[in-house]
Amino acid sequence: MEIDKGFRYADLNYNGRQYHFFFHRGKNARITDPNKDLLIARRRGNYFWGTARYEFMDGEVYKLKKKEIANGYEIIGPSGLIFKVKDEAIVPVEPITEKDFLIQAFYVFRRIKVTQETPPDVVIYNTYYNPVTSND
């Protein structure tokens, strides 16, 4: 997995296929195929309301649960444990399917993004665009 210095995106090469991971509008996850410009999966919902899920473009939906444990948390999918953090470290979990692997890789990227700081040579500018309408 290659991660951008500013932690904006990550690229993964696995079994001859390429995947691109990024956060759409800062919070919603997206997994794409950069060669074909195809969306593979997107994350919707949140854990608080119990609606967290990954929607794959083949129509399959993976509903996720976040279970808090002592000094960490677990992400549980339809086929079992997908991702686990204990004592601030990622615990190895064997994925069952390719979709489990993609979700797990995204959580690894997210954990790296949350726990690391941007190097001082990287500057990220955020701009806010407020369109002027006829009512203004």
Would you kindly provide a written description of the structure presented here, covering whatever features stand out?
This protein has one helix and eleven strands; from the N terminus they run E-E-E-E-E-E-E-E-E-E-E-H. The chain has a domain at 2-60 and 98-115. It is globular and about 45 Å long. By secondary structure, it is mainly β.
**What percentage of the residues does DSSP assign to strands (E)?**
35-45%
Gross morphology: globular
> Helical element count?
1
Secondary-structure element string? EEEEEEEEEEEH
Which structural class do the helices and strands define?
mainly beta
* Order of strands in the sheet with most strands: 1-2-3-4-5-6-7
Q: Helicity level, as a percent range?
A: 10-25%
Mind describing the biggest β-sheet?
A: 7 strands, antiparallel
Whole-number average pLDDT?
85
Poorly predicted runs are none
Q: Give the radius of gyration.
A: 17 Å
Terminus-to-terminus distance: 47 Å
How many strand segments? 11
Protein traits:
136 residues, mainly beta, seven-stranded antiparallel beta sheet, four-stranded antiparallel beta sheet, 11 strands, 13% helix
What's this, in brief?
With 136 residues, this protein is mainly beta.
